[in-house]
Amino acid sequence: MSLWFSASAVTPQLRSIWGLTTSEAAWLTTIVQLGFVCGTAVAAILNLPDLIPAATFFSAGALLGAGANAAILAAPGYRSALALRFATGFCLAAVYPPAMKMTATWFRSQRGLAIGVIVGALTVGKAVPYLVRAIPHVGLRPVVLTSSIGAAIAALLVTAGYREGPYPFTSRPFSWRHVGDVVRVPEWRLATASYLGHMFELYAFWTWIPAFLAASVAVASGGFLRAPRLISLLAFTTIAIGGAGSIWGGLFADRRGRERLVSISLVMSGSCCLLSGVLFGRPIWILGALAMTWGFFVIADSAQFSTLVTESVPPHAVGTALTVQTSLGFLLTMLPMQVVPLIAQRTGWRWAFAVLALGPVAGIAAIRRLATLRARSSEKANLSLSA
Question: What is the CA angle 219-223-227, rounded to 5?
Fold first, then answer.
């Protein structure tokens, strides 16, 4: 998944090479979201995650994505790069949703933790380009190639080592009705609504936190940006710490409830959206502490939305359900990813992230309704058993 932000980590170099505006630079990441949305939409409509063996689907997506990502080094210009970034996102649609389904076949009682580890790996992977960029004297080419090599290794590992677990999901022949079977489940709708609130915040934060940190450091130092590689390292830490947040979230959710974990995470990350404006321009250690707290909680609940889906939809449609959910979520991310830099361009970076708090507010409302619905269903089931 390091393919996702490989271009974002070297945006300053690409802007210099191609003379890009802020909006054009934003599209280097936003177009990955669009490619992912198109890929997941095609996969969901054709039921591919429930028809093609997961390891085959995953490995093909990872290898093709690695190739599309590496090809950006030979791109003659901005438009070609956009096409390649779109192709990268399209291929990653065969990696992320299938990985969650693959993991779920090995777990029942600790499925939240298991999928949390997957999301944690995804999070650390996405942060890797910023870590490579922070190494002294490392330029564009090593950042891009490291991501592609990582994706190729992942494809080989899955091809050679993955086996389906003892709790496989049943499969059915292709049917146009699979998406309808999923959408009719009220638990899926509420879990997905809360997921959309989570996604409204997540990728805009991940994409623009390096620019926000750089702007804050420049203000604190009197208008001069110092130690740009320190900013890359802090950006890596801010995103990568979400790996620990995902594992903690899985442990907490399995023991004390998924809805409770989601509510706590959304409250914390939503508060950080607002605090970012208050602490903008403060010493780097203060803003860094906020950024890492935010990075921990912003992803801690992500796996639980997927886990809720695997527990609520018909077994034959789990792959399609996960794919539809992620497709809608990534489609929504495109809006805040474009809005945040526009706000920053007009008013400055101080309050650019405040708008993202709308996502957690909506997510909390939906997850509370889901908790009420699941509690009522549990009560009915207990009464039926008693009778």
Answer: 85
Separation of alpha carbons 50 and 319, rounded Å: 5
CA nearest 263: which of 365, 350, 382, 177? 365
In this prediction, residue 324 carries a pLDDT of 83
Residue keyed to tokens 């009719």? 184
Gap between the Cα atoms of 73 and 3, Å rounded:
13
CA angle 147, 120, 341 (to 5 degrees): 65
Q: pLDDT tens digits, residue range 188-244?
A: 899 999 999 999 999 999 999 999 999 998 887 765 556 677 888 899 999 999 999
Residue in this structure with the two tokens 């789990």, named with its chain if needed: 318
Q: Which of 366, 322, 332, 232 is nearest to 40 (CA)?
A: 322
Contacts of 68 by beta carbon, 8 Å cutoff, 6+ apart: 84, 85, 87, 88, 91
Degrees (nearest 5) of the Cα angle 314, 317, 322?
A: 110
Diameter over CA atoms, the chain = 73
Confidence of residue 358 (pLDDT cuts 50, 70, 90): very high
Q: What percent of the chain has pLDDT over 70?
A: 94
Count of CB atoms within 10 A of residue 99's CB?
26
Supply 51's token pair. 């028809």
